[in-house]
């Protein structure tokens, strides 16, 4: 079918396409490369002129220094456990709520949903102190509960799930009801399995949020053994003596798990995000 | 923690009818929301009507709000925030749409690689982002000025000039969030039926015309979604000015959220900080509402 | 299908890890941190009872300072960086006197520490340590807004130590009633760190720089001869040089009565010198702390006027420049004028919700008034003591190899003793910000110094209700 002329334009377009994207990738990835260079070089190298763009041999030493200051393995495990726990429960809560908002009509539905959406608009600094006070009153300071609970009902996630759930054909649900399935069984057996892509998309958002969540864990976690990565890394940036090699090592490590998480879920993510709202 | 998350098992079927079920489904979310969002929000709202000197709190009516509307720094912050919003969001979304269209090309291989590469900036830890950008944008030895010197451009005071500081923030935010929006938009593109394009091809429409007559209209709900999210994000802009410019020079990058933080956490005026927060909430709500009306919420109802 | 496997796997692992986590918390008894968590949990279980207990304990303790045998408890201390490390190292010596007191030092980043402190105070004292470090210029800010948050050290007898510290430092530790709410630790006597090879290359002799005019002149020579600028200033974020100069001239943002003085003739004079430096092309506009450090180690600037603590930064960040740095005193505004000023420094406070005020006070007293921990903090970490008696230590006279074999510590000790007091006030944070704005205004927008400082004064007056001079 393809004529020579067409072939020529296809090649030309391919070249253009890849050039544009590769320039984009370079811009987007360069800071990461630079970070990695920082992690393999001694601290002062980061200042050198002209900039050093080659990996050095300080990788192990930087890791050792970092590990002397921060129990990095422990902190990584804390972060992973917290982010996964949060993601799991938060996804469940959001999908249950999103399902109800999308597929049932009940009294107060729109008012409640609208109130949830309003919460997205509130700057987080302003609730910090009352929330901290609440945690103190509950006696939950310095617990992971305090880190996890406040954002567990994550309005944006509920919103996303509701948008997706709307694409479920009502007839499917009715058919299940006719078969005598209870409402919960329908949710777990019929609804959730069709929602895998959306669940993946929402999971990525939630994991990202919790992984990088900084200020709240900082104020509620007192114990350095309980620190999450951002909190631990931040403690390395002080007033007078900053070891950049160490910090770059830490930040490089902190991007790895979230990259892996994204890699695992991204296929689902892409077909899942907002899938529902578009089809309508 | 687990109690709220576990739904009452299906055994209590009598109570769970299609009529009552939605309440069970929303219960965990709503309970958590009331305790951990509504309660703090209401108590900080109350704070905004109070004043405190030397640790003694008293009722102040609308004093904080009155002060706010006479505060030229607040207006400056408002102006800065809106300037960044008006410039940055359209630039970012345009780049994101273009990237998404390119990424959606049938000619492209290794799509996953590109997707991750573009998405990466959105998942960086703040501390890393802060240090890397601070040093890269440094006027004297930053990599950016070094690279610009190759093409003969004089060093730019990226973080220390009222104009360039805003530009730096815009660059930083765009770097961080373009890929994120691109991924969302790409998802939207992949849901546009190929039939539409084929029909248009038969009618002789070129790629560019297809983009404007099919892609954009089909993408509208998702564009609206990303526009609203980006608007909210920019109106709450805090991390970048806090880390990169500290609101300077001479308040040229002071944003509303940063001003809120300074009042609360530096000057210990939590009452005033709360007032700022609620004015910001009203602005965001109004703006989101207008965006939905203007761009048309095809998606709702 | 994949995602379900993944979800299942993650749930399973969460379960496992959560179980581990639970065990960890319980089993960590031997480790201080774990014990702390348990103590917290217990405290929370009987919050009210304990609170009452605390208050009583606090009252009882008055006037009863220091039979080592009675004092016990576990004390948590917040500090950052090397300061935290130096406190950690003092624990052993402390426990020789107070064997029943356990000290847990938590190293928290500086800004993070303030955020946590602020949130804790604002929430009524929850989650705070027994002792915390606070920088001197921020003390009034906290004293003003959270007056009940601090243990009155005077009631424990700290007044007896007042004469051991420079007057300016001791004055800053007190609240409006003249009571000590903090104990003085390190100070930042200021000096001009300079790059010896650059000075030599330009043929400039540091000893000849006696006034700021000399300084500008020397800077111009150095710029011509070497291409290096004279001083780094983070123009829009930090007015450190301005503050040192004001301190030299006996003024500050506020006068001793708390009136706004940022637009005084002296302040205008100081800002004008900075303007001159900038106009002569001698100011390297650096971005933040990183930028300043970079400018220092890269020969971008020939001098860095800063507090003594910068010595540690240079040694740390540019170990290869050993012998290439030296220090002279800040130039005066006129020949024979005052060359002493201070920049920075920090202190220890006992926070009032502590369950063991006696033990906490004991540690603060030991750490701030004994020479051993203070000398260790200096020699190991470059934290310069305010405890005057330490200055007699032979260490001060020692020549420092890194600093061109000069006895720089004795120079700084000399500066410390001559420094004039500054009234920081509870509105320091605001004033600091608006002063930096004024500096940016003067240097970047060419506003006359008097006008820019008047504007800053007006803004501070507006927001704080303080009088302007």
TrEMBL record, chain A:
- Enumerate the InterPro entries for this protein: MetI-like (IPR000515), MetI-like_sf (IPR035906)
Q: Which Pfam families match?
A: BPD_transp_1 (PF00528)
> To which protein family does this belong?
Belongs to the binding-protein-dependent transport system permease family.
Q: Per its record, how is this protein called by name?
A: Carbohydrate ABC transporter membrane protein 2, CUT1 family (TC 3.A.1.1.-)
> Which organism's genome codes for this protein?
Alkalicoccus daliensis
* UniProt-annotated location(s): Cell membrane
Query: Cross-referenced PANTHER family, in alphabetical order?
Result: ABC TRANSPORTER PERMEASE PROTEIN MG189-RELATED-RELATED, ARABINOOLIGOSACCHARIDES TRANSPORT SYSTEM PERMEASE PROTEIN ARAQ
* GO-annotated cellular components: plasma membrane
TrEMBL record, chain B:
Transmembrane regions: 21-42, 73-101, 113-136, 270-290
PANTHER family annotated for this entry?
ABC TRANSPORTER PERMEASE PROTEIN, INNER MEMBRANE ABC TRANSPORTER PERMEASE PROTEIN YCJO
How is it placed in the membrane, per its record?
A: Multi-pass membrane protein
Query: Which GO annotations describe the biological process of this protein?
Result: transmembrane transport
* Principal localisation: membrane
Q: Which PROSITE patterns match?
A: ABC_TM1
Q: Which InterPro entries match?
A: ABC_transporter_permease, MetI-like, MetI-like_sf
Spell out the protein name for this chain. Carbohydrate ABC transporter membrane protein 1, CUT1 family (TC 3.A.1.1.-)
TrEMBL record, chain C:
Which InterPro entries does the protein's record reference? Bact_solute-bd_prot1, SBP
Q: Residues annotated as region Disordered?
A: 31-68
Point to the regions of Low complexity compositional bias. 33-47, 55-68
Any one Pfam family here would be SBP_bac_1
Highest taxon of the source?
Bacteria
Q: In the UniProt record, does the keyword Lipoprotein occur? A: yes
Which keywords does this Swiss-Prot/TrEMBL entry list?
Answer: Cell membrane, Lipoprotein, Membrane, Palmitate, Signal
Q: Which residues form the signal peptide?
A: 1-18
Q: Identify this protein by name.
A: Lactose/L-arabinose transport system substrate-binding protein
């Amino acid at each position: 079918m393809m004529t020579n002329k067409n072939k020529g334009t296809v090649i030309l377009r391919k070249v253009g396409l890849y050039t544009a994207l590769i320039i984009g990738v370079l811009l987007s990835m360069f800071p990461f490369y630079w970070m990695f260079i920082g992690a393999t070089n001694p601290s002062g190298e980061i200042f050198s002129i002209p900039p050093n763009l080659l990996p050095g041999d300080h990788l192990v030493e930087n890791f050792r220094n970092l590990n002397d200051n921060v129990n990095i393995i422990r902190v990584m495990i804390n972060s992973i456990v917290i982010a996964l726990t949060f993601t799991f429960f938060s996804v469940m809560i959001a999908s249950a709520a999103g399902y109800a908002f999308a597929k049932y009509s009940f009294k107060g539905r729109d008012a409640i949903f609208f109130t949830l959406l309003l919460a997205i608009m509130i700057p987080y600094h302003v609730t910090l102190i009352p929330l901290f006070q609440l945690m103190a009153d509950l006696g939950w300071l310095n617990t992971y509960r305090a880190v996890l609970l406040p954002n567990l009902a994550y309005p944006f996630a509920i919103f996303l799930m509701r948008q997706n759930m709307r694409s479920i054909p009502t007839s499917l649900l009715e058919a299940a009801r006719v078969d005598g399935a209870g409402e919960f069984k329908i949710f777990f057996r019929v609804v959730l399995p069709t929602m895998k892509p959306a669940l993946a998309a929402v999971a990525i958002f939630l994991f990202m949020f919790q992984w990088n969540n900084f200020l709240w864990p900082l104020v509620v976690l007192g114990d350095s053994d309980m620190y999450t990565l951002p909190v631990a890394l931040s403690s390395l940036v002080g007033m007078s003596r900053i070891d950049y090699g160490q910090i770059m090592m830490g930040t490089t490590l902190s991007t790895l798990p979230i990259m892996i998480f994204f890699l695992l879920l991204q296929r689902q993510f892409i077909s899942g995000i907002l899938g529902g709202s578009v089809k309508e | 923690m687990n109690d709220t998350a576990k739904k009452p098992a299906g055994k209590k079927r009598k109570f769970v009818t299609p009529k009552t079920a939605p309440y069970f489904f929303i219960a965990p979310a709503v309970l958590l929301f009331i305790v951990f969002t509504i309660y703090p929000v209401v108590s900080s709202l109350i704070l905004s009507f109070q004043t405190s000197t030397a640790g003694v709190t008293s009722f102040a009516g609308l004093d904080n709000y009155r002060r706010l509307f006479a505060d030229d720094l607040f207006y400056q912050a408002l102006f800065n925030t809106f300037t960044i919003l008006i410039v940055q969001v359209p630039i970012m979304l345009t780049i994101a749409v273009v990237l998404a269209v390119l990424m959606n090309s049938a000619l492209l291989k290794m799509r996953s690689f590109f997707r991750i590469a573009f998405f990466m900036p959105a998942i960086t830890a703040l501390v890393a982002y802060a240090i890397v950008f601070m040093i890269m944008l440094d006027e004297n030895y930053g990599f950016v000025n070094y690279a610009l010197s190759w093409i003969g451009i004089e060093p730019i005071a990226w973080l220390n000039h009222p104009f360039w500081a805003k530009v730096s923030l815009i660059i930083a935010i765009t770097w961080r969030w373009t890929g994120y929006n691109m991924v969302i938009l790409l998802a939207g593109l992949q849901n546009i039926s190929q039939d539409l394009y084929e029909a248009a091809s038969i009618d002789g429409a070129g790629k560019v015309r297809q983009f404007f007559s099919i892609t954009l209209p089909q993408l509208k709900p998702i564009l609206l979604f990303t526009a609203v999210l980006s608007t909210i994000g920019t109106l709450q802009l805090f991390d970048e000015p806090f880390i990169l410019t500290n609101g300077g020079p001479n308040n040229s990058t002071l944003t509303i959220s940063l001003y809120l933080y300074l009042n609360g956490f530096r000057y210990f005026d939590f009452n005033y900080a709360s007032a700022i927060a609620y004015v910001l909430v009203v602005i965001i709500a109004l703006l989101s509402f207008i965006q939905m009306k203007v761009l048309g919420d095809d998606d709702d109802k | 299908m994949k995602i379900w496997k993944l979800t299942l796997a993650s749930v399973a692992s969460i379960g496992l890890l959560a179980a581990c986590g639970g065990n960890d918390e319980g089993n960590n008894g031997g480790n201080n941190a774990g014990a702390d968590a348990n103590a917290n949990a217990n405290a929370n279980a009987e919050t009210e009872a304990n609170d009452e207990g605390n208050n009583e304990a606090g009252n009882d303790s008055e006037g009863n300072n220091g039979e080592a045998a009675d004092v016990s408890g576990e004390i948590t201390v917040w500090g950052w960086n090397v300061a935290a490390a130096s406190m950690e190292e003092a624990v052993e010596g402390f426990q020789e006197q107070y064997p029943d007191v356990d000290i847990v030092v938590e190293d928290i980043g500086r800004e993070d520490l303030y955020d946590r402190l602020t949130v804790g105070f604002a929430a009524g004292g929850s989650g705070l340590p027994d002792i915390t470090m606070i920088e001197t210029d921020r003390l009034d800010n906290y004293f003003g807004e959270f007056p009940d948050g601090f243990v009155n050290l005077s009631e424990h007898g700290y007044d007896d130590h007042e004469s051991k510290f420079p007057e300016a430092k001791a004055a800053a530790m007190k609240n409006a009633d003249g009571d000590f709410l903090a104990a003085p630790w390190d100070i930042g006597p200021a000096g001009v760190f300079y790059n010896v090879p650059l000075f030599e290359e330009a043929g400039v002799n540091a000893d000849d720089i006696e006034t700021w005019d000399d300084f500008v002149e020397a800077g111009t020579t150095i710029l011509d001869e070497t291409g290096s600028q004279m001083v780094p200033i983070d123009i829009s974020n930090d007015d450190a040089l301005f503050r040192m100069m004001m301190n030299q001239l006996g003024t500050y943002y506020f006068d001793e009565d708390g009136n706004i003085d940022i637009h005084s003739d002296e302040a205008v004079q100081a800002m004008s010198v900075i303007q001159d430096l900038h106009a002569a092309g001698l100011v390297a506009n650096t971005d933040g702390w990183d930028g300043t450090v970079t400018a220092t180690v890269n020969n971008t600037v020939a001098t860095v006027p800063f507090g003594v603590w910068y010595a540690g930064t240079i040694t740390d960040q540019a170990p290869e420049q050993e012998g290439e740095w030296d220090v002279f005193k800040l130039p005066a505004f006129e020949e024979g004028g005052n060359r002493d000023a201070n920049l920075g420094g920090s202190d220890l406070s006992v926070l009032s919700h502590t369950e063991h005020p006696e033990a906490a006070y004991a540690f603060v007293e030991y750490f701030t008034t004994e020479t051993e921990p203070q000398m260790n903090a200096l020699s190991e970490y470059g934290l310069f003591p305010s405890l005057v008696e330490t200055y007699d230590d032979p260490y001060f006279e020692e020549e420092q190899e890194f600093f061109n074999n000069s006895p720089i510590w004795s120079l700084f000790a000399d500066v410390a003793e001559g420094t004039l007091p500054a009234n920081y006030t509870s509105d320091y944070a605001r004033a600091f910000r608006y002063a930096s704005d004024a500096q940016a205004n003067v240097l970047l927008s060419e506003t006359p110094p008097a006008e820019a400082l008047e504007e800053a004064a007006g803004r501070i007056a507006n927001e704080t209700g303080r009088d302007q001079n």
